[in-house]
């Protein structure tokens, strides 16, 4: 009875729709028809279930394709000629509240983000909001460039780098084919990634001085100049006592 029927969005199956039936695999089950299963007589438009004159996934806002959330990230910087990437965890909600710490003084040049499914870098909007250790805003003014790495991964280049002179929380937000947030806790000198710089961090750097740079020790080159030297230890020493609170 149309008079007693409450209009619903295109993405809600109408009463006559089938439930999944393994014996009749071609029966329609999705009112948004992303595969065009409602197309009639060769027409590229399907049915307009909610009467708003917009058809199927391509045109009806109710049927916009779901966006993919971020599931992992890496912070990358060039150390001389060596590209060093650190895994960046999801923040304080993760298993290790320190695993999203970026300890290098050169900041975040590139953040490579893995999404739960394929995304389109061209339709991905990226925004950055940073705060200092006291929760006060730290303006970021620069160019943000997302580029496709593989179907599920986008690497975002920052020019200039995200700030890392002082403890800073930067939340990178995504809208479009990928949606959600990923936070990076910039804590210069915190090579142990426990959210506070101590003499232990200085000792860790001291123990690596002179080692050839590779994927296991590059985070101790906090100056990002391509080698681990006394200068790196001095940079860490100057930050002893600083800390960074949990980022969102």
Description:
The protein has 248 residues and is mostly beta strands. Helices cover 9% and strands 28% of the residues. The chain has 3 helices and 10 strands, in the order αββββββββββαα. The strands form 2 sheets. Strands 2-1-4-8-7 form a 5-stranded antiparallel β-sheet, with no helix packed on it. The chain has a 5-stranded mixed β-sheet with strand order 3-10-9-5-6, with no helix packed on it. Strand 9 and strand 10 (180-186) form a beta hairpin. Helix 2 runs antiparallel to helix 3. The model has no long low-confidence stretch (mean pLDDT 84).
Structural class: mainly beta
Estimate the helix proportion, in percent: under 10%
Rg (C-alpha, Å): 24 Å
How would you write the strand order of the largest sheet? 2-1-4-8-7
Order of helices and strands: HEEEEEEEEEEHH
Q: How much is the average pLDDT?
A: 84
> Which parts are unreliable, with pLDDT below 50 for 5 consecutive residues or more?
none
Beta fraction of the residues? 25-35%
Distance between the termini: 49 Å
Give the overall form.
Answer: elongated
Task: Give the tally of β-strands.
Answer: 10
Number of helices: 3
Main beta-sheet annotation: 5 strands, antiparallel
């Amino acid at each position: 009875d149309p008079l007693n029927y409450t209009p619903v969005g295109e993405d809600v199956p109408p009463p006559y729709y089938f439930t999944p039936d393994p014996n009749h695999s071609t029966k329609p089950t999705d009112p948004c028809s992303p595969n065009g299963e409602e197309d009639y007589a060769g027409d590229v438009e399907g049915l307009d279930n909610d009467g708003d004159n917009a058809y199927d996934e391509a045109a009806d806002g109710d049927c916009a394709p779901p966006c993919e959330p971020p599931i992992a990230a890496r912070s990358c910087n060039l150390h001389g000629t060596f590209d060093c990437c650190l895994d960046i965890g999801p923040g304080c909600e993760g298993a290790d509240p320190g695993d999203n710490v970026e300890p290098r003084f050169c900041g975040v040049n590139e953040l490579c983000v893995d999404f739960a499914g394929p995304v389109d870098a061209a339709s991905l909007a990226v925004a950055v909001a940073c705060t200092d250790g006291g929760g006060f805003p730290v303006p970021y003014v620069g160019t943000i460039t997302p580029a496709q790495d593989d179907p599920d991964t986008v690497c975002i280049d920052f020019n200039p780098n995200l700030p890392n002179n002082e403890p800073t929380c930067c939340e990178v937000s995504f809208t479009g084919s990928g949606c959600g947030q990923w936070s990076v806790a910039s804590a210069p000198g915190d090579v142990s990634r426990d959210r506070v710089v101590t003499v232990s961090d200085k000792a860790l750097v001291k123990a690596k001085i002179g080692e050839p740079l590779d994927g296991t020790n590059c985070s101790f080159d906090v100056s990002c100049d391509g080698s681990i030297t006394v200068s790196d230890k001095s940079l860490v020493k100057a930050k002893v006592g600083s800390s960074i609170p949990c980022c969102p």
